[in-house]
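hi!! sorry for the late reply, been swamped w classes. u asked for the two structures so here they r. pasted raw, havent cleaned anything up. first the sequence of the first protein and right below it the tokens
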Amino acid sequence: MPVATLLPFTATPNRKSASPTSFRLTEKFILLLVFSAFITLCFGAIFFLPDSSKLLSGVFFHSSAVETNTRTGPDGGDSGSAGNDERVLAKIRKDHEKALLEAKDTLQKRPDEIKQDILNDKEKVAVDSAGQGGKQVNNLPFVEYHRPPGATGHEPLDPETRDRRTKVREMMKHAWDSYRRFAWGSNELRPVSKQGHSSNLFGSIKGATIVDALDTLYIMEMFEEFDVATEWVEKNLDFNVNAEVSVFEVNIRFVGGLLSAYYLSGKEVFRRKAVELGEKLLPAFKTPTGIPWALLNLKSGIGRNWPWASGGSSILAEYGTLHLEFMHLSKLSGNPEFAQKVMNIRKVLNRLDKPQGLYPNYLNPNSGQWGQHHVSVGGLGDSFYEYLLKAWLMSDKTDEEGKKMYYDALQAIETNLMRKSSNGLTYIAEWKGGLLEHKMGHLTCFAGGMIALGADGAPSDKTGHQMEQAAEIARTCHESYARTEMLFSLQALEQHCKVEGGYSGIRDVYASTPNHDDVQQSFYLAETLK
């Protein structure tokens, strides 16, 4: 091959054979320079002119605003294009401001709250796109979560109150840290022997203290501990057990604990676990009357009552303390069966004749008749009355049936059970077969708070009277504490119940020296320290 063909730019052109449209080498080089300059100018304009973001979004990302502009066609004219440009710029500015506000709001949230918002958004998108009637994969409906106001982030103005609050938080930390160190995953802690403890009330379900303490950890803003507890619930809380449990205890500690944690944090794991456990408790209602059994095997679904409970009766404080949780289970699961079960309990009770308007503690679930006529506002009866009032309040005061049952019961209690001792202390006696037993158990002391809570909803002529009753009962209970050898208060718990491994109950508060029972109950973290 000739060398000239390898070096075309150095070969001498044959001018005679060139066509009129052909260019010399120097002309070609000049044209190449001009073309390069033009390309550079065009791309420079795209990247550096003020409206470049709009143009780029239109070219590369097909923004809806730019697409609208291009759809106007040749008839749009320059004035229309200018107007569209202004609208696009205004939209960009508006979106920018919105993004800044959202970012500012997000920065004020905790990392786990941001994560939860993302998960909620994902679930909403999944539900909207699935088109399955609002059902998720786990068959729970989408629920728009609203964080309750005032649960965290507030400090009391009074210095003494702040100091007390700080002290109680320290007590909670000691109880929690001890449980985590010596009994993590067990239901409860033995603080003296520093090991785990489990009552047969929970069968072989584990982690009662963890679940029961969730809401206390949250409202005390112990968020690191709350996150650790949440992780345990997600990975380890298992209800697939072949064991008999107390329906009442499992409901108030596990279902109640999970529901409270869900409403405070919005974490779906708590809603999912609460509904899962609630479904396992439903077989307890398979009785001729629908009054549930006290005990239930979670695997077989076979139930029974305590053998000591008046000929196999169900207990008022147990079957009457399911209402709040089961109403919420229906709301969060979309399954009306939970609510139907507890509303049926009311139907049974309303059909029965009540001696002197009072509710006996025992009811046979087979015959639907009262067992032994023993009435107590303390043990065996207490929380039934509390739940009547709170069901009305929880319904935003629309549950008129619950309201009537509560105030009618309170009137019967005042008439038949409330008495005053010779030294002027008001108490609520117990009633057995028409005869009063003039004693008031410690569990009855909740009634002072209950009556005060309900006084505002009483008829106007009874509000003041009920507040006086509440104060008198509270005074009686205070006296019962003050007259013990171990004066019980926040300081007394520290002095007598605190041990190196947590807080222990005391067998006899009238003894001069404490005899510890070596159990840190889950409700110490869930209720006492609140």
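now the second protein. again sequence first, tokens right under
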Amino acid sequence: MGSVGDFEFPQSNALLNIAGRASNDNPLDPEEFRRQGHMVIDFIADYYKNIEKYPVLSQVEPGYLKKRLPTSAPFYPESIETILGDVQDHIVPGITHWQSPNYFAYFPSSGSIAGFLGEMLATGFNVVGFNWMSSPAATELESIVMDWLGQMLRLPKSFLFSGNGGGVLQGTTCEAILCTLVAARDRTLRIIGNDNIGKLVVYCSDQTHCAFKKAAQIAGINPNNFRVIPTTLSTSFSMCPKALRNTITADVEAGLVPIFLLATVGTTSTTAVDPLGPLCDVAKDYGMWVHVDAAYAGSICICPEFRHFIDGVEGADSFSFNAHKWFFTTLDCCCLWVKDPSALTQSLSTDPEYLKNKATESKQVVDYKDWQLALSRRFRSLKLWLVLRSYGVEKLRGFLRSHVKMAKVFQGFVEADNRFEVVVPRNFANVCFRISPSAVMNKSSNGVLGEITNSNDISSPRTKITKMGLVNEVNQKLMESINGSGGIYMTHSVVGGIYLLRFAVGATLTQESHVIEAWNVVKQHAHAILNSIPTTQ
């Protein structure tokens, strides 16, 4: 018998051959689907039951799978038993376990029973809901769910279908940014002419997600017109409205045309928050489109005590967050609201003869194909609907608050240990920390370390640079050592020249005991690394 956790399946060749033939008599036979479906559900349930047995970060080497799998596809059918055995033996070792309770890297990709089952329903129906007629329920449920969620976030009514705006489910924030940027581009070019595309300028901070730069390239924005506003540690890496205005003013004086500002609530590196109100005020003076990217932090804003982080959103043109990050809805599910849906549809609409129908021509329905890049689209609203109904607003708030509480616990551990420091204030459930410079320098002795320690001018630029490099190197070693152990998984960033470790709480299975154990792992590895530095003579 083979096994996956507590789940066992037969390995008899005769049984496997029978199962293989039966499963292929009709690839959608209901009873065979029922049989195999139960097996896959059991497999996944056991995977979650035993997930802590696996190293969080996959330990395989590049190219490992090619050595394990055949060089060509099978000619004859194989059974689900055989395939699941190979999943366990060959695929699971190559997975980084994002749903592990010991996963604290990047941002969460939180799942839930409701999210998974909603995904199953959507996949089971397998509709291609590009317009209303292709599946009315898919379109109408999406519009309803987006208004529900907008109300939970207390978005201005101008973003909702119940106002003059509306919401759409995109795949990712990358798509949401590109769609809104294209709408902003075309809105301006309709006024100044397509020949002037080379004059268009877009703006963001040095903490903005790299997706924006890619979107600008795809949208045809001159790379020389991509403006990045510097941020500093003193302002917790949020964008400065005054610096933005100065940059825009210089561009206008040079004959350029500002069209788009991307502001962020919860940046990737440090979860910094840009001041939406003042930034929107600047953009308004120049007729610019403002998009608010709250991919990570938007979820927590359903909690009243966190809603202030998106104050000023009323001045923006569009707003998005990823329900697949921290809202217990499986990938992919990006929620995008716009004040002026016609701006999207004017840029993204297609109207071939084979898609013409009376419902579309009535102007009484939404055709979501015209709100996105692709024609085909998935029934994403079904899983979001299940999440909202299965847990309700209050329980969802409770889940999110528990993650923030656990992050506070970890932050308390960091602050209580004089070898560590919190680098930037924690806004949500991500703690940015490092081994402190003083802890590193107190251990230094000869060579460059001694030069820094014994320098008569500790404030000199060379001393500062060398010292920062040493501290960064020690923290990089700490992160690599921790992740190499497989016990927990964290990621890093470099901001203002500072190498920091990011401890992002948000995996659905994480409990406070996992946070406590994670801190023990951090301490153990830090102790070993600091003790490997020769002590000062």
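hope this helps!! also noticed smth abt the second:
The domain at 30-97 is CATH 1.20.1340.10 (dopa decarboxylase, N-terminal domain).
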